[in-house]
């Protein structure tokens, strides 16, 4: 029964996404009603397999939206047609993990592990290498970065006299992973915010990359200041220190030929990532379909061609098929929340209740003034994340209220504020996928992992507010 249930979920989820992509990219509305029906079925079969928090949010969205529509006398066909919003975001969550396949097939994940053995001079240097590698991979792989980095660095970290291995590995990986979410096209939140503000990715890239790199330097600085108290065990005996250092140095010897291979592989990976981002941004500028859909449509052929050039085309197709059958059925929680939230947003728009939200947000902006309102904005998705709400959902609910023209705020500042707020949710939101994946990997509670990220999150918020203040 469990296998049959997974097969049904995989079929319905994948079918809804494929029809949506065909309908949207080809501008064919023939399948719209079928897509809405499939979305309703998707929510229905997803709810039993979602967490209690996700089920609660789903029921709140559906019941609230249904009540508003019933009060306005909306007929059943129109009610059904409101389902299917946010399928473009779900398609991105489904497709992006395919980029991890050629990285595995090409042996690039092993290179990260060997890199840590190349020139590790100290615990601080190890932290910088891990967070920097996580930052690098997150530009391209999104959530797949977390397990790949953990299993690449676990053995190395175990050789160091670190007092709390779990804390060290969690902080170094998650902090590095979260920062590219500010700007990378593979992060769904980037496409959502850019569509909201109407600003181009190319225009915002230098600003967002600067903030992202500033956050990485801040992370390294905070860890440097805290490492003596939090990371290394207190080895009082100098002889013991020397023995530990000697053991590590001997264990990390790598010959010059292997060092050249590592550097060559890293250069290849860097070129591929740069080419993919350049391809997405060029097509996004040329095609009228938005960044999210452009990324979705290009990911599969890009990963397939890359694998084919390595002579691994058949292996890629096999792993991609396995991805659909194994990974997609486990996305029940995302399908339940995103599709129900999309329905709720459409219900707000159709019934006119979104204008009431607009009045509240605009009134708050006028009362507080632009500087304080911008400083408050990042805390909205962060606060909602503690209710289990994804930042994409939170921003979608407030989309019309956050119109930069109505608020009188520059599109650049609004974009930075919203994306910066999204980063804080990935760092501290105890119910999001980032914390959830790390929790399952290191066998630690989500709330504890969230607490570990508190110092850096606070520092990043200060950096973000300062950045907004000086941004023209």
From TrEMBL:
Keywords for this protein: Membrane, Transmembrane, Transmembrane helix
Coiled-coil ranges (or none): none
The protein, known as: Uncharacterized protein
Residues that span the membrane, as ranges: 28-47, 53-70, 82-105, 125-153, 174-194, 266-283, 289-310, 372-399, 411-431, 451-471
